[in-house]
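Q: What does the assembly look like in three dimensions?
Context provided by user:
Components: two
Sequences:
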Amino acid sequence: MRSVITLSTSAPADDTPRGVGIDGSWLLPLRVIPTEGGPVLHMLKAAAPLRPGVPCPAAPAGDERLHLGEVYFSEVLPGHVKGWKRHSRQTQHFAVPFGRMALVLYDDRPHSPTRGVLCRLELGRPDAYDLLRVPTGVWYAFAAVGNSPALLCNGADIPHDPDEGEKLPLDSPHIPYSWDR
Amino acid sequence: MRSVITLSTSAPADDTPRGVGIDGSWLLPLRVIPTEGGPVLHMLKAAAPLRPGVPCPAAPAGDERLHLGEVYFSEVLPGHVKGWKRHSRQTQHFAVPFGRMALVLYDDRPHSPTRGVLCRLELGRPDAYDLLRVPTGVWYAFAAVGNSPALLCNGADIPHDPDEGEKLPLDSPHIPYSWDR
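A: Here is the predicted structure of the complete assembly.
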């Protein structure tokens, strides 16, 4: 049985991750701090986002630093979709600091308790400036919403390795979601 | 004797950092990878940016991961300037993945071989998508260029600590630069 979950609004920024209906995936509301001249936007901090009690890059005891493989951006132009993709070893931590992005996750991991679940959500200010964890093995794709580019930032736990990534065409019948709009 | 250095264009992305005229500060050209739907923009990678032979967060031998204190964004609205600021313990690694930012650095560290040097540069695509290292003790301020907001990303080596940051007003006579435009 397949479930479709649509998440449209974010919880308040309280450092409490919430599930998105897919095992190992969560959303963590991030802080937006208004300052003179423009806001400061939190993303990754050793003390908080990457350690909400789920498997993630953990630093040795007493080490306050994040241990990351890579930080990079993916810009999506209006009218475009990137995906489908999944990773066998890399865990992704996504935020959208500029623009608005629609993301769809699909879980077809054979032994997942949430196998078959599809989740659609949006990331971006003002209501959804959140950190999204995408676990290994889960398909994802993302598209800019509206008429402006959107910028996704990924804090990945291991460096990019082309051998551990897998792709499917956007219109693959394997994933029960249509990006035609 | 005071020097003013203005850097206006970036070297090609070749993983070779270049100095900006201030001891401990450098620019590393970052890769912009054109892809269908929008470019991928590199920023921080354990194997490259944070280890070009200068003091920076180093991982234990054999550990391929970055060790960072924090990753956050600072958006600057058109017509605004943020600064002056300096840090006593935090080393900053700046990139501007969206929009265009003017940055000014000023070195008044008593024992610096480049004491008195002021450097103005711009970060942003297409010609200056670079990583800028700002060492401890160096004053900095930044402003959005043009009529759009600009987004700065900072990969800092230690988490934010209000006790190690210092500020001066933008019109401080201590720093020989005028932000009036």
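Follow-up: The radius of gyration of chain B is 16 Å.
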